[in-house]
Design goal:
The chain is built from 3 helices and 4 strands. The protein is of the alpha+beta class and about 130 residues long. The chain has a two-stranded antiparallel sheet. A two-stranded antiparallel sheet has the order 3-4. A hairpin with a 2-residue loop joins strand 1 and strand 2. The longest helix is centred in the middle third of the chain and has 27 residues. It starts with a helix and ends in a 12-residue tail after the last strand.
């Protein structure tokens, strides 16, 4: 048998499993860590730390959005009423500056009405138009 035939017919050496750490051609068994540059066998159980952090962040964002949307509509009504009153007061101020006349604001708490008058009378004989 020639040298080429001896190499071809030689029994194959036992190869390590894919992903297993080897040391000098021998299969490493037990809890010994892999050396740098050698692949580590991936764990098939559980979640990675990155996956858990991403999941917690998403849950936090979703719960914040859900809680903020389920807030009482009473707060929204109060805010919109305040914005409406502020807009009406700005309009009255601009009219007073443009006409060079004082403007009085009448607030009736019982009926929830606000009136703007050009006179100081309680009945508001000259309402702001």
């Amino acid at each position: 048998m020639d040298a080429f035939a001896a190499i071809v017919h030689r029994p194959a050496a036992r190869l390590p499993r894919a992903g297993a750490c080897t040391s000098a051609g021998k299969l490493r068994r037990g809890p010994a860590p892999c050396r740098a540059g050698q692949p580590k066998k991936p764990s098939a159980r559980g979640f990675t730390l990155v996956e858990l952090v991403v999941l917690l962040a998403l849950l936090g964002i979703l719960s914040f959005v859900a809680l903020s949307r389920s807030g009482s509509s009473d707060a929204f009504a109060q805010h919109s009423a305040a914005e409406e009153l502020a807009g009406a007061m700005r309009f009255a101020q601009k009219r007073a500056v443009a006409a060079h006349v004082p403007v009085w604001i009448r607030i009736d708490v019982a009926s929830g009405r606000v009136g703007f008058c050009l006179d100081a009378a309680a009945a508001c004989a000259q309402p702001l138009q």
